[in-house]
Amino acid sequence: MIAAVDETIVKLKAASGGPVDLREVMQRMTLEIAGRTMFSFGMDRHGAALRDFVMEYGDTLARPHMLDLLLPLNWPTPQDFRRARFRKRWTAFVGQLMAERRAAGKDDNAPARDLFDLMGAARDPETGQAFTDAQLGDQVATMILAGHETTATALFWALYLLALDPDTQEQLAAEVRGVAANGTLDIERLKFTRAVVDETMRLYPPAFLIARAAAGPDTIAGRPVRRGDVVLIAPWLLHRHERLWRDPNAFVPARFMTGTPPDRFAYLPFGVGARVCIGAHFALVEATLALAKIIGAFRVALADKDPVLPIGVVTTQPNRSPVFTIKPR
Ligand code: HEM
């Protein structure tokens, strides 16, 4: 993680002075981190293609089409045929990544190098079976996608909020200077930086909606729920609810520094319960570290002052990529 963030900072230094698209830079960086840390993939060769897939899907097929809403659920729409063709191309691409990764070889006697090796060695505790290639491909694709776009989104909104709030940005930079005094960053001491990450994900939860199908009949807030009903839990609404938060629309990182964590069910950027995010710790370490290093290295400002609006397309995306300027500190 540190190496990928440091490389990003070197590239940003070369670009400082001109306009920068920090959304794109964050997407590239988190993809690099996901690919390298979990799968040792050669991101230098495949990063661009992977990002193209993510962008293509987000810009087109992830968005609901009128026919998705009008036709009965079990009728395929033209979008569904396009989605199926996309899936085929995507599956072939992931297959190629896995083939290259395997060809790169592994010393069978060496300890597992990364998550790819661990998943390859995993066995079903009941049947003793390994993952099939298709299952392994799905796991790899899930971890890469769930593991980078969400964190990139959180980092983008954090940088956006800090650009709008220079005092908070300076407070974060001062913390980094203090913590980095001996040359290394001790993540446990980056309390304010972490609070900025937490507060960013309160205002802009990357997963704005969590969906469930009811396993059986139930009652929620006095309303009957039938088996199969779809229940939508919206962190977006919970995180800005006036009964749960004081001054809910304000950016106040200090609210996460009182020593008392917020109510478990009022703040759920990573979900809650059995399907809680498996990568929450990974993401928090990554986002805190990256934000500290970037704000420690640059003063970040917005070059264009038009507001950026959040839109829900898989994650809480900005409606456009604003132009930032960065100045080395
Ligand atoms: C800021 C970054 C992230 C956010 C906001 C986030 C958010 C979430 C949320 C809300 C869920 C629960 C979905 C549900 O209940 O239906 C989830 C599940 C999941 N996340 Fe994350 N995530 C992040 C980063 C990551 C990373 C870095 C990884 C992988 C390294 C990851 C892998 C997963 C996986 C595999 C699941 C499914 C877990 C399961 O169903 O058992 N996520 N994430």
Blueprint of the fold:
Layout: H1 2-15, E1 19-20, H2 22-39, H3 43-61, H4 66-70, H5 78-103, H6 115-121, H7 133-146, H8 149-164, H9 166-179, H10 191-203, E2 210-213, E3 218-220, E4 223-225, E5 230-233, H11 235-238, H12 280-297, E6 298-302, E7 310-313, E8 315-318, E9 324-328
Antiparallel strand pairs: 1-9, 2-5, 3-4, 6-9, 7-8
Helix pairs in contact: 1-12, 2-3, 2-7, 2-8, 3-5, 5-7, 8-10, 8-12, 9-10, 9-12
The structure holds protoporphyrin IX containing FE.
Residues 142-143, 146-147, 150-151, 154, 206-207, 210, 269-271, 275, 277-279, 282-283 line the site of protoporphyrin IX containing FE (HEM).
How many discrete domains?
1
Low-pLDDT parts are: none
Total beta-strand segments: 9
CATH-defined architecture: Orthogonal Bundle
SSE string, helices as H and strands as E: HEHHHHHHHHHEEEEHHEEEE
List ligands, each type once.
Answer: protoporphyrin IX containing FE
Largest sheet: 3 strands, antiparallel
Ends distance: 22 Å
The CATH topology corresponds to Cytochrome p450
Q: How big is the Rg?
A: 21 Å
Counting H and I runs of at least 4 residues, what is the number of helices? 12
